[in-house]
């Protein structure tokens, strides 16, 4: 791409992957121009973190998610007006970042601006996919080089760290062809700490994405089987939760069980990453798995606590769902080697968070017995009116629950909700026709997997909509207590 034609924030375009979501009806020229205006303004005025604890600026996520759901320009502007109040102002870094000093300032948020400029220059010279490959998935970006401190850069660990925010941010850039977001996301990764390095060891970069030829081996186990084995592993046991610091729990799990988690994941990761169909199947496994991790404990834990309790919409598990939406876009632009690295490492991070939230039971049968396959979600309109094929008083007067679910999400103050419901709606469209009892699920080791069908996603979305639709929600909206009462 020539410097003349290069734009940081062009019109959003369709994802490079056929299994990524399409934008919903409602897109207008005015809405698209507003998204571009907001992204440019945010890029020029705000830092990646909105406080000194490293909490992330989500402006880009919010406006792109609601734009893709069909929001008009006024809603996009309102979302930005709401979100920008808490942002920190951008500031110039103490110095420039070059190839020579790239490793010397990793983890220092004061160099965010300099890393953004570095990555913009790199993307102008090559393209976003090549820069992503070189600076996240190469050996040099992880263990084949060092900075002045003597530390390896470990960029893949940074990419998947901080609750996978970098993966999400870059995911939007890749999905919508926004080079500016890819540059911002890579800069975020560079200034992140590296808490995730324990499950992205040097040996990961030596693995061949194509299994060696030889004797015929059995197929790698399904992600459900790996999840079941982790659940049943009595050596992985969370006895206490460090008070008010969820990241400490995550770090504790990494320090104590990284090797065990990797052992489980490496069995799953024994697949040919040059086989596009097989890679898509692995992505599908991870998407189902992460929705289970979010939805099932949230429902069953609330029932244990009493009927007056609403769904436990866990803040941390929710990020596993929203990040999984971007696996197809990432996979579409990466080499087989990088695809393999991403899928294996992402699954390891997902399992680590599952353990760090208390490793709750997954009561599949109860979830499907007790939640609604066709939930009645309050809509803003009074149904289809008199000219209708529907009988008066019919429970199907609101014939598609997704309309009300997505309408609520578009206007909600919390940006995570529109991201989550967009993800679940897409999975419902992609996987909604699946019937229960199919062999690929039923023959896994996960108890109750034979009951899973394509209604999982609307059940999860409706429970979330009910919880976050309450008028008396405390600040923060989401639950952060975890599931430690059920810990194994």
How would you portray this structure in words?
- The protein is an all-alpha fold and 488 residues long.
- The chain has 2 domains: 166 residues, no CATH class; 269 residues, no CATH class.
- Helices cover 51% and strands 0% of the residues.
- The chain contains 18 helices and no strands.
- The chain is globular, with a radius of gyration of 22 Å.
- The N and C termini lie far apart (53 Å).
Features:
51% helix; globular
The counted number of beta strands is 0
The share of residues in extended strands comes to under 5%
Number of helices: 18
The computed structural class is mainly alpha
Task: Specify the biggest β-sheet.
Answer: none
> What is the first-to-last residue Cα distance?
53 Å
Mean pLDDT: 90
A few lines on this structure:
The chain is an all-alpha fold and 488 residues long. 51% of the residues lie in helices and 0% in strands.
Task: Draw up the topology in text.
Blueprint lengths: L28 H17 L13 H10 L4 H11 L28 H14 L2 H10 L17 H21 L3 H13 L31 H10 L13 H23 L7 H30 L9 H10 L2 H7 L2 H21 L7 H7 L30 H11 L3 H17 L7 H4 L13 H13 L20
Helix pairs in contact: 1-2, 1-3, 2-3, 2-16, 4-5, 4-7, 5-6, 5-7, 6-7, 6-11, 6-13, 8-9, 9-13, 10-11, 10-13, 10-18, 11-16, 15-16, 15-18, 16-18
Keywords: Oxidoreductase
Protein name: Oxidoreductase AflY
GO molecular function: oxidoreductase activity
């Amino acid at each position: 791409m020539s410097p003349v034609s290069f734009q940081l924030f062009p019109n959003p375009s369709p994802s490079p992957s056929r299994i990524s979501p399409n934008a919903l009806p409602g897109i207008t020229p005015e809405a698209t121009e507003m998204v571009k205006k907001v992204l440019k303004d945010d890029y020029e005025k705000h830092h990646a973190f909105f406080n000194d604890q490293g909490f992330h600026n989500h402006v880009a996520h919010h406006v792109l998610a609601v734009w893709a759901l069909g929001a008009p320009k006024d809603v996009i502007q309102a979302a930005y007006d709401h979100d920008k109040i808490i942002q920190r102002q951008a500031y110039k870094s103490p110095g420039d970042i070059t190839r020579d000093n790239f490793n010397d300032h990793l983890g220092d948020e004061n160099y965010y601006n300099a890393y953004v400029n570095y990555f913009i220059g790199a993307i102008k010279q090559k393209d976003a996919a090549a820069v992503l490959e070189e600076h996240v998935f190469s050996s040099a970006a992880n263990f084949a080089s060092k900075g002045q401190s003597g530390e390896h850069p470990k960029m893949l660990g940074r990419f998947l760290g901080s609750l996978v925010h970098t993966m999400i941010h870059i995911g939007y850039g890749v999905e919508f062809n926004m080079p500016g977001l890819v540059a911002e996301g890579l800069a975020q990764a560079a200034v992140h700490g590296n808490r995730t390095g324990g499950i992205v060891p040097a040996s990961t970069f030596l693995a061949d994405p194509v299994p060696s030829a030889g004797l015929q081996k059995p197929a790698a186990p399904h992600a459900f089987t790996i999840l079941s084995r982790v659940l049943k592993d009595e050596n992985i046991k969370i006895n206490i939760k460090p008070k008010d610091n969820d990241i400490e729990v995550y770090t504790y799990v990494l320090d104590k069980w990284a090797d065990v988690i990797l052992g489980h994941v490496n069995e799953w990761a024994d697949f040919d990453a040059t086989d596009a169909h097989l890679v898509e199947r692995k992505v599908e496994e991870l998407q189902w798995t992460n929705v289970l991790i979010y939805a099932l404990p949230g429902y069953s834990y609330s029932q244990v606590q009493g009927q007056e309790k609403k769904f436990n919409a866990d803040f941390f598990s929710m990020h596993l769902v929203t990040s999984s939406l971007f696996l197809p876009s990432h996979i579409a632009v990466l080499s087989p080697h990088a695809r393999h690295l991403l899928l294996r490492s992402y699954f390891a991070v997902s399992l680590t968070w599952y353990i760090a939230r208390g490793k709750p039971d997954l009561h599949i049968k109860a979830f499907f017995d007790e939640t609604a396959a066709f939930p009645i979600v309050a809509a803003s309109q009074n149904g289809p009116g008199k000219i209708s094929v529907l009988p008066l008083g019919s429970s199907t007067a609101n014939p598609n629950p997704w309309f009300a679910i997505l309408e609520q999400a578009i206007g909600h103050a919390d940006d995570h909700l529109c991201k989550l419901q967009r993800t679940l709606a897409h999975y419902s469209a992609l996987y909604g026709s699946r019937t229960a009892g199919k062999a690929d699920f039923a023959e896994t080791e996960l108890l109750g997997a034979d009951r899973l069908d394509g209604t999982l996603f609307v059940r999860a979305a409706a429970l979330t909509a009910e919880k976050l639709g309450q008028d008396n929600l405390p600040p923060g909206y989401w639950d952060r207590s975890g599931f430690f009462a059920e810990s194994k």
